[in-house]
Amino acid sequence: MSRAPSDLSRLFDPRGIAIIGASTNPTRIGGQPVRYLLDYGFKGGIYPVNPKYQTVAGLRCYADVTAIAGPVDIAVLAVPAAEAVAAVAACGRKGVAFAILYTAGFAETGAEGARLQVELARAAEAGGVRIVGPNCQGMLNLPKRMFLGFGSIFQISDLRIGPVSMATQSGGFGFSVVLSIEAQGVGFQSAISTGNEVGVTTPELFAAFVDDPETRVIAGYIEGVADGAALMAAGRKALRAGKPILLWKSGNTVRGKEAALSHTANMTGSYDIYRAAFAQAGIIEVKDIDELADYARAFATGRLPAGNRIATISISGGAAILHADRCTELGLELPRLDAATKEGLRKVIPSFASAENPVDTTATVFNDVRMFTEAIELVLSDPNVDQLAILAASMMGEIAATCMSAVATAQRRFEGKPILVTWTGRRERAEEAYRLVEEAQIPVYTSPVRAANAAAALARFAGYRRRQAEVEPRATESRAPLPPLPAGSGALDEAASKRILTAIGIPTPREVTVAPGADPVAAAAGLAYPLAVKILSPDIAHKTEIGGVRLNVGTPEALRVAVGEVQGAARARAPAARVTGTLIAEMIGDGAEAIIGVIDDPVFGPVVAVGLGGIFTEVLHDLSYRVA
Amino acid sequence: MSRAPSDLSRLFDPRGIAIIGASTNPTRIGGQPVRYLLDYGFKGGIYPVNPKYQTVAGLRCYADVTAIAGPVDIAVLAVPAAEAVAAVAACGRKGVAFAILYTAGFAETGAEGARLQVELARAAEAGGVRIVGPNCQGMLNLPKRMFLGFGSIFQISDLRIGPVSMATQSGGFGFSVVLSIEAQGVGFQSAISTGNEVGVTTPELFAAFVDDPETRVIAGYIEGVADGAALMAAGRKALRAGKPILLWKSGNTVRGKEAALSHTANMTGSYDIYRAAFAQAGIIEVKDIDELADYARAFATGRLPAGNRIATISISGGAAILHADRCTELGLELPRLDAATKEGLRKVIPSFASAENPVDTTATVFNDVRMFTEAIELVLSDPNVDQLAILAASMMGEIAATCMSAVATAQRRFEGKPILVTWTGRRERAEEAYRLVEEAQIPVYTSPVRAANAAAALARFAGYRRRQAEVEPRATESRAPLPPLPAGSGALDEAASKRILTAIGIPTPREVTVAPGADPVAAAAGLAYPLAVKILSPDIAHKTEIGGVRLNVGTPEALRVAVGEVQGAARARAPAARVTGTLIAEMIGDGAEAIIGVIDDPVFGPVVAVGLGGIFTEVLHDLSYRVA
Questions:
Q1: Cβ atoms A331, A452 nearer than 8 A
Q2: What ipTM score was computed for the predicted complex, to two decimals?
């Protein structure tokens, strides 16, 4: 399903842009891009296209895209659904590389729209045009001043330029996320909405963002992707480059899936399998806007911890406890500090404070800031510490400036150990302190829980990178081929299944098969009691339910009884089943019952499921997935 | 353990306040309260106490608290730990009702401190003084201008007055939460830190806040309480009054508990049992600052939904999907809309938009705001809808003002159905729109996930209130007394246990007990095959593990074999056990294996645990608790 990554470079650096369906009214959908490209300083060609007008916003307006003389790399299509196919064909004739198609009314509306979408895809393919959309809200590229879309965000010309690029299947939501994150001080390179993804897809864009030297953090919102392998390949590529993909996946519940179908018509798929794929490909899942902003700020620093261990210095015991709770829940390790570190700490912090991790300097820091400064240096020097959380409560004024100066200095000395600050000091009473941490690129969080979440995301990504460095070189190792399955189709009975397991090296219990009517005691002569007795039939998958299993059979006498019972049970409760005999096996002692299955997932292909087996499989759904 | 609620009214309305250990330096801990009380306009008596000074901040300074002539309801104690006991005793002589003791160095520091804390408690009791603290950071009461504490928050005289009161065991953290929430537009009445809780406790304060007519929302941070019953009583009282307690409990992991011990020395206890108690008492648990702020804003409106059903109107399909996902995860119901509602919607929204809940008007609302207005009225009129989420993406300017005017008008018409808005429009570009929703007391959230969380909290609290209204009148119904337990102590065997179950009305299988050596077939003559055969011994709790159980025994012949086997297994694998015989019981068909236990919890007393029984109990820890 996956294909070679396409070249999207002209989508982010077009020589000319045509606006098909351009409007002279700058508040209309066809008028906005013309206005924004002009007003915000786009440097390439701007070509309004609309047979109704001679000029739009003072620019020559073309009757048809093919009438434009200069190169056109992008066409924005603000046309009704019924005209979209013809417009795309015209773009093909002009040699336009990308058509951004706002128009809704395709697969998201039902069968009729789906047919129109197929037509659209054909026209695009025939003309060599790659579609962004349909049913999208356009795109932004801030350094190139490309404001190609409609909606509130395009009115804001001074959006902060920064290290994040985002691809989103939902324009309305995605751009509101961009706004919300930008308001938290995180700048963007690009943000692009893909809607129904007839052409350009989110995984393709993620891969392209990895290649963009200015993008350090990749954000995404998807309802589902058509090509799971492409998503995972983009994840692995991003991981190798050290640029995290922070991905939000929606449409995970029954009602959410329904809503997604009428939204962008992307297949939402199985959430469990998506999550498995994210973990395998090193993609960091996010589940709220603030989480995305928090992680983006942590990753934008470029600092990653060497391991899973985090230390905390807090001026508030309460914050330290919450932070410790949350770190523990997220699987971070709170290491004990070295004896030397603790000894050093005891010399600087009060006797009633805590010199163990989490270090609690207590609020007496307000009387003696020096202890705070020294504690930071001591803890960062400790070899057991991979990253450091500073919990600064709501310090303000002079004290805040002194403390944050110490934090900034320490971060510069220990670049390999990320510092994350939790702090709710009011900005207007701590301007200098905020300036210091921002200059040092230290992320500040408003709660110890959010800081712990971000620290865990850093550690997780760093862990993914270590695993990748270890596993990828081994990926080409050859393995012995698996034995062929028996000819024919359908379910195998237990004995045939076990023969295959044995052939591939998975041990099974010693056992014999007894034909109906044969003497079980003689057949079991070579086995050690106690024994398990099971009905053998390709038609009986759940043997226990029909009374077809007897365990812990201790004597030959009991064996005869048990074989008679399971055969009798099968005759009584599964009269239609083909019974091939009785399986007699040695009992296995302690061990966990496991289920292993393979799912052919429409998005990700073959997926292996492993979980708690036996009678609880269906009740507990305790399954873990891996994309094969 | 629980005692009658004490009278804390003078703590929030003192006639006079003494500051023991007052300092002439307004930046010192003993100087701050004097300064703040004077500067911020406290109307009662202000009495600095310190033998070193004649005056502090222009006020007469007393050598001893007993030298003050006027009434003193509160003394703030900024003294070393070694002087605390004497200072409290002096307060007792003066008749001071409450001593706010900042000082650390008590139970949180170990055995020596714990002894000092006991002494302190004795002095307080002897003098009739109730201690707030020790190891606390003081308190705030904004309407009374009581700024009695140290730390950054006390420097901010213009903290917004509003409907929230907070009690926190951690001053540093609690006050930083207050600041953070206040910055989100939520005002406070009181905020008080209780530290080690030698005297005044968080549950007591929660109960007092319920009685405060100006407090509509109660917030709390605890590491643990000594008196679980008092906490639950406060929760039920708050529930009756319709004032939610939004409670954050920390110290829930091993490292968190350790940190709590050296912080306020409150017993953190079992988190699972706390959570059960919260649910039983109608307390809403929160796990982050933003969550607390979000819920506070939702509850401050005073509007509660009548049921669990939520409808959504979104201008962004993506936001609608996320909202639907999150609502579903949280157990909210997304009802289908009435046919009439859908018919009405189809007339106003575009053909490619969704007229099913979640209603997606799509971004075309930017071209036609009227559809939005009409959709709101239609959906709120639907009898299947208990509350409404409006997802407004980042609309700004005129459109935002028109839309939010419609939202505000609709909320006034449908007061019984709370509206929660998700919106990231920039304030400076939507001043009028923000003013309109704020005037109408409609909470605004920056993400659909946070709005869904808040909606679920409203629904949960409303559900607790319905349950309380239903259950409390029944609480006095008399029940038949339980039969006495057999004399003596120790574990009962299975047969004796089942006799007790039968006596209290829980059915058990028909069964017989066979003495060792007796004929099992004759004994089981009255039972229907298949049978279960189990070893009977008060010393063998886990019968399966020693091979002491045989199930599905189908014939008299097999029964003899089975009884011999389980007796043999017990002899071989539990030779020291007293075997009283064999239990032969009829097999029970379908049914779930359950475990029921009672825990004597140090905080909450007897707690019943119910869960999945059998061999998975220990593996899965799938237990549910109820405080008895």
A1: no
A2: 0.83
